[in-house]
């Protein structure tokens, strides 16, 4: 019996990378897990099959979070199919990079829709179903605390918005025993940002440890916050960034 046995979790963007690692980690701790995807149906199904092969319960939900109603719909589907919702992990988001002059209004709207609006709307929907012990955990970014150079305006804007949002959620939901937190990754080795990519050496040079982290490093932090040990942590961010923000 794991520490999350009997709990239900929803992980947005759970088909690959950090989201897939989080979904599998929470399932390994005993939670039934729903995971969303927007286009990678095969990858999402593979994650679900891996969870089920290990004895867990998984649900795959398609959700295009650029659509205003998608986040709440994913929550309602999870509740209907898995019987409730105790843990919401807002992982879906865009990795954005480029000069200020190149940012368009359309790109800004798309990034904020997924990285900010969907987080708020998913939390709003989830809070209607959560009871004491509920957890809302968002995957942020090391850009919440440090912007090391040019070309990160949009990324820093979107991820920094999660700080105020999460503090507001913590105050609003704290009296009900529901926590709201952020995990801020640094350079993490995923297919979106591989440890052998073009900018990998530069990213390593910005960390105190001089290396990339793994998706499992982030998943471990999420498991901690989702479990009993995280009951007194709310309204704050935990940096899992190898000392990027030191």
From TrEMBL:
Family matches, as PANTHER family: OXIDOREDUCTASE, SHORT-CHAIN DEHYDROGENASE/REDUCTASE FAMILY (AFU_ORTHOLOGUE AFUA_5G02870) (PTHR43639), SHORT-CHAIN DEHYDROGENASE_REDUCTASE FAMILY PROTEIN (PTHR43639:SF1)
Family under the similarity heading: Belongs to the short-chain dehydrogenases/reductases (SDR) family.
**Protein name, please?**
3-oxoacyl-[acyl-carrier protein] reductase
Q: Which residues form a coiled coil?
A: none
Give GO MF terms, alphabetically: oxidoreductase activity
Species, as recorded: Kitasatospora viridis
Matching entries from InterPro entries are given as:
KR_dom, NAD(P)-bd_dom_sf, SDR_fam
UniProt keyword list: Oxidoreductase
Ketoreductase domain location: 7-191
């Amino acid at each position: 019996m794991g520490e999350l046995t009997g709990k239900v979790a929803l992980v947005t963007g759970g088909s690959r990378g950090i989201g897939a690692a989080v979904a599998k980690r929470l399932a390994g701790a005993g939670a039934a897990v729903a995971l969303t995807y927007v286009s990678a149906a095969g990858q999402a199904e593979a994650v679900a099959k891996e969870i089920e092969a290990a004895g867990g319960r998984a649900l795959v939900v398609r959700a295009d979070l650029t659509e205003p109603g998608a986040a709440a719909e994913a929550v309602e589907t999870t509740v209907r199919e898995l019987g409730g919702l105790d843990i919401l992990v807002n992982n879906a988001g865009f990795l954005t990079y480029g000069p200020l002059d190149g940012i368009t209004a359309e790109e800004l709207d798309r990034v904020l829709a997924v990285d900010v609006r969907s987080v708020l709307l998913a939390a709003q929907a989830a809070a209607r179903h959560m009871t004491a012990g509920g957890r809302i955990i968002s995957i942020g970014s090391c850009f919440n605390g440090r912007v090391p150079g040019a070309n990160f305006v949009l990324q820093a804007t979107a991820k920094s918005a999660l700080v105020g949002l999460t503090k507001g959620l913590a105050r609003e939901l704290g009296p009900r025993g529901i926590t709201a937190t952020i995990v801020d990754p640094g350079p993490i080795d995923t297919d979106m940002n591989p440890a052998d990519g073009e900018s990998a050496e530069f990213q390593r040079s910005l960390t105190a440890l001089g290396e990339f982290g793994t998706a499992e490093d982030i998943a471990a932090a999420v498991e901690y916050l989702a479990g009993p040990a995280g009951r007194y942590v709310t309204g704050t961010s935990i940096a899992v960034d190898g000392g990027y923000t030191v």
